[in-house]
Amino acid sequence: MKTWARMWLLLRQTAMAVLACVWLSPSIASIAADSLDEARAAYQQQKYEQALKLLDTVIGNGVGPPGALELRIRTYLKLGQTDKAVEDYLRWADRRGADDIVLLRELTIQVIAAAVTDMREQMRGAAVTALKEMGGAEALPLLEKALADQSGLVRALAVEGMARHGHADRSKRVRELVHDPAALVRVAALRALGESGNRGVIPEIEPLLRDEQPRVKAAAGAALVALGRSEALPGVLELVKHPNPDERASVLNILGHLKDNRVVPSLFGALSDREATVRATAAGILAERKEAGAAKALIPLLKDPTPLVRGVAATGLTKLQGAKAVPLVEPLLQETVPAVRAEVAAALLPFNPASADPVLREAMNSPDPGVRSTVAKHLGQAGNQAVPYLLDLLHDQTPRPRISAIRALGHVGNEKNVAVLKPILSDPDVAVRVTAAGAIGRLLNGL
C-alpha cells in the first residue's frame, strides 16, 4: 500500500507540474513579447544599450521569439560590436536557411569599417583593398575617409577604389591629392582624374608636368592624353628612357593604361631592357592589351635568365593564345623555381588540367607560405576551374595564403561561394576577415 501511495503522490506532483507549465506558458510568452516590443521601441529611440539588455533577457542562450535575434544583430551593429553581430548573424542565417542580403552587406561593411582605423598600416591597407574590391555605394564613405589616412600607401589605395567605381572627379579630396607629398598618391590621383573623362580638371593637372618625380610627370602627361590633349604624349615617352629602372617600370605601367597606339613601340622596346622588372612589366602589359605581335615577342622570354620574367611571359602567352600556348608553356612546369611552376600551372589549368593539377597540389603543400600565396593569387585568373583549389587553400594555417585565396575566390567564384566565406568573418586575423568581407561584398554585387 505504501508503494502505491508513493506512486500516486508522484503522479499527482507530475500532473501539477505539467498543468503549471500550461498555465504559465502564455504568461511567459506574453512577458517575452512585451520585452521584445520594449526592445524594438528602445532601438527606434536609438537607446541601443537598453535595447541590448532587453534582448539578452529575451534570447538567453537560445534564439528567442521571432525577430529577436535579428534585432540584436542590428543593435550590435549600431553599437559597433561587430564580432558579436557576426556570431549572431551566422546562427540566425543558419537557422532560417537563407541570407538576408541587405543585412549581410551591412555586416561586411561594418567588419571592414572596424579595421579602417586600425593602428597598424597593414590592417588599414587590407581594409581599403577590401573596399576597393567590393565596390558599391556603401564603400564610398569609408574610401573617402581613407583618403586622409596618415599612410601614403593607404591613401593611394583609397584613390584607386574611388576611381574604380567612377567617383574620383566628384571627390574634392581626390582632386587635392594631386599635390600629396607622396609620389605614389599623386600618381594614383592623376590617373584617376585622367580616367574620369572630366576635361574640367585639366588646369589642375597641367602644373604636375613640372613635378620633380619622373613617374608623376608621366602620370600627368598620360592623364592629359586621356582627356584629349594628345600633344602631351611625347614628353611621357621620353621618360621610358629614364636611367632608374624603377622609374622606367612605373612609366610603363602608366603608359599601359592609355588607349593610344603611339605607346606600343615603347612597350615592345622595353622587352629587351637590361632590367628584369622592366621586361616583366612590359610583357604583362602587352598581354593585357592583347597587342598584335605580342605573342611572338613573348616567346623568347620563356627562356629569360630571370624567373620573374619567365613566369610573366608564360602567363601572358596563355592570355594571348589560349590552348595554342600549351606546348610552349608546358615545359616550364619542370622549372626549378617553385613560384614559377605554380604560376605556370595556374595559367595552364583552364587548358590542360591534367598536367597542371600535380604541380598545383605540390605548390599548395609547399612549406613556403609565399609559394602557397603565389599559387592562390594566380588561380584568381584561372576561371571557375580554380574554385576547388581555392576552397582548399581557405584552410591554410597561415594568413597570407588564406588572404590570397579569399581574394581570388571573390574574382572567380559566384554567389554560392558566399556560404564558405561567411564563417571567415569571425577569423581571429583582422586582414583575413576584412578580405573575406570584401570578397563577399564583391560576389553579392555581382562584380
Q: What secondary-structure arrangement, pairings included, does this model have?
A:
Blueprint: H1 2-44, H2 48-59, H3 68-79, H4 82-96, H5 101-116, H6 121-134, H7 140-146, H8 152-164, H9 172-176, H10 183-196, H11 202-205, H12 214-226, H13 233-238, H14 245-256, H15 264-269, H16 276-289, H17 294-298, H18 307-321, H19 326-329, H20 338-348, H21 353-364, H22 369-379, H23 387-393, H24 399-412, H25 418-421, H26 430-444
Helix pairs in contact: 1-2, 2-3, 3-4, 4-5, 5-6, 5-26, 6-8, 6-26, 7-8, 8-10, 10-12, 12-14, 14-16, 16-18, 18-20, 20-21, 20-22, 22-24, 23-24, 24-26
Fold and architecture overview:
This protein is mostly helical. 68% of the residues lie in helices and 0% in strands. It contains 26 helices and no strands. Helix 1 (2-44) packs antiparallel against helix 2 and helix 7 (140-146) packs antiparallel against helix 8. The radius of gyration is 29 Å and the shape is flat. Residues 17-30 have low confidence and may be disordered.
Radius of gyration, CA atoms, in whole angstroms: 29 Å
- Mean pLDDT value: 89
User: What series of H and E elements makes up the topology?
Assistant: HHHHHHHHHHHHHHHHHHHHHHHHHH
Instruction: Tally the helices.
Output: 26
Total strands: 0
